[in-house]
Amino acid sequence: MALSLEEVRRIATLARLRLTPDEEQRFAVQLSAILDHVEQLKALDVTGVEPMTHALAAGEIPALRDDVTVPGLGPDEALAAAPAREGTAFKVPRIIE
Length: 97
Known about the structure:
- This protein has 3 helices and 2 strands.
- Helices cover 37% and strands 4% of the residues.
- The protein has a two-stranded antiparallel ribbon with strand order 1-2.
- Helix 1 crosses helix 2 (21-42).
């Protein structure tokens, strides 16, 4: 399903995005490819397949990485690029009167 540039512009407006003409062209192609893929998925026979509420089946354990502790940044290294600092903290403008 090929999207027109007008449809891409409408989608961009609804998403409050400002696109350049080059981006409009690129997104028209990309969004059309996504819609074509969804159409292919619609053609699959899923009779007998139970709906799922989660990507993992019930009781399935996700493959997670091991928790590994690593040393954190020290205050001087963490605040090295801060525009302003006070002691070991970022200093920000006061906004409450």
